[in-house]
Design brief:
mainly alpha
């Protein structure tokens, strides 16, 4: 993948990476909350269960970042084709 060229691409790249990290933490928290229940141990504290909500939040951040990048590239392509037709 080529490095991002403008500010919007850099921001969306950062947002994408943050989203991936949130999904990873949320998924690990989900596994951590289910594992004690599967082996018959006591449940974990409520804070660990709340960390599970990071997975869908991260997915939302990823989707918004991808949408913004697609809009930015579409805008750039449109301006490039308009410049070439003039």
């Amino acid at each position: 993948m080529a490095p991002p060229t403008d500010v919007t691409d850099r921001r969306t790249d950062l947002a994408f990476r943050v989203g991936v990290a949130l999904v990873a933490v949320g998924t690990l928290a989900s596994i951590a909350t289910l594992l004690p229940l599967a082996i018959g141990r006591d449940a974990l504290p409520v804070g660990v269960y709340l960390l599970c909500f990071l997975a869908p939040l991260g997915l939302g951040v990823i989707l918004v970042a991808l949408w913004r990048r697609a809009r930015s590239r579409s805008r750039r392509l449109r301006s490039f084709t308009e410049d070439r037709t003039l």
